[in-house]
UniProtKB/TrEMBL annotation:
It comes from Dactylococcopsis salina (strain PCC 8305) (Myxobactron salinum). Methylates ribosomal protein L11. GO terms for molecular function: protein-lysine N-methyltransferase activity. Belongs to the methyltransferase superfamily. PrmA family. S-adenosyl-L-methionine binds at T139, G163, D185, N232. It comes from the Bacteria. It is an enzyme of class 2 (transferase). CDD domains: AdoMet_MTases (cd02440). GO terms for cellular component: cytoplasm; ribosome. This is Ribosomal protein L11 methyltransferase.
């Protein structure tokens, strides 16, 4: 039997783009693309039919209208229809192209040949139905932070990737010089996607270990504690996870946290401080931010 997917289309003012990416992500979309249409943006989001009832989609379109009213821009046009899995794969793949991120990385869709004249580190990716193409600003902020850490600091280190999605952050960390990564995600489809992207990038399975779960699972996979923690999940989830970070940290552990809307940065920073972490830098892209943190005990890395 063919699996069906909802394709949600939103034609909107460009100022709404990031907010709507966040809305679709919250709603459960597992692939999102955006296209410039003259003065407007056409955003497409995809999720399995079983994950949303038409009533949920109607509610989503109301939230989107309210977002536009709050921001004082013209109301977007939202529509949705069902497509089969094969169409889903080809629909959004058409709009996703190789993308330069930061100073050194090039994320290249698995179905395209990477350019052979690039000096960038090429990360090949087929996210399948998992989140993490590099299009979302929070993924980009994390990738840039990982790049910066490895261009400035020493190579090596054992990394924990919480909420790995397609595996993009673990694979980037390994390509930039991490020794080993342990990745977890509560979604089994993300675990599957990370394993296939590991193979696509010729990363050895003993260098990137992937399992279904969260912080507790990481603690049992590698009880010695990690040198670095990367976590790009929504702020509400991060707030719940912060108390558990100590169980997987060492005195020198650094962290990169994103998925955080600017207005949620303060409660996250407060909770981090309470649990023995210090915020070093905050990087911002539109309404999203990324915190680079380290354990409180040490003044320097
Ligand atoms: C925003 S995506 C990030 C994917 C990828 N790391 C990236 O940066 O593009 C968040 C991922 O976290 C997973 N997730 C949500 N809650 C989680 C939790 N409590 N523990 C582990 N993973 C979780 C979701 O299934 C999703 O794949």
């Amino acid at each position: 039997m063919t699996n069906s997917w909802w394709e949600i289309k939103i034609s909107c003012d460009p100022t709404l783009e990031e907010l709507l990416f966040w809305r679709l992500d919250e709603f459960g979309c597992q692939g999102m693309v955006t296209e410039q249409k003259e003065e407007l943006r056409l955003i497409r989001g995809y999720l399995p039919q079983v994950r949303a009832h038409p009533l949920d989609l109607a509610a989503l379109s109301l939230w989107i209208e309210q977002d536009a009213v709050t921001m004082g821009v013209e109301e977007p046009k939202t529509s949705w229809h069902l497509i089969d899995e094969q169409d889903w794969a080809s629909s959004w793949k058409k709009y996703w192209h190789p993308q330069e991120i930061g100073d050194r990385l090039l994320v290249c869709p698995a179905w395209l040949s990477p350019p052979n004249d690039t000096e960038r580190v090429v990360l090949r990716l087929d996210p399948g139905v998992a989140f993490g193409t590099g299009v979302h600003p929070t993924t980009q902020l994390c990738l840039e932070s990982v790049e910066m850490r490895y261009s400035m600091g020493k190579k090596g280190g054992i990394i924990a990737d919480i909420g790995c999605g397609s595996g993009i952050l673990s694979i980037a960390a390994l390509l930039f010089g991490a020794e080993k990564a342990y990745a977890v995600d509560t979604d089994p489809l993300a675990v599957r996607a990370t394993r296939s992207n590991r193979q696509l990038n010729r990363v050895k399975s003993e260098q990137l270990l992937v399992e279904q779960g969260s912080v507790k699972r990481l603690a049992s996979m590698y009880p010695k504690g990690f040198d670095g923690i990367i976590c790009n999940i929504l702020a509400e989830v991060i707030l719940d996870l912060i108390p558990e970070f100590s169980a997987i940290a060492l005195p020198h552990t650094w962290g990169i946290l994103s998925g955080i809307l600017m207005e949620k940065a303060q409660p996250i920073a407060d909770s981090l401080e309470k649990h023995g972490w210090k915020v070093g830098t905050l990087w911002r892209r539109k309404e999203w931010c990324c915190l680079n943190i380290r354990r409180q005990e040490l003044d320097d890395d």
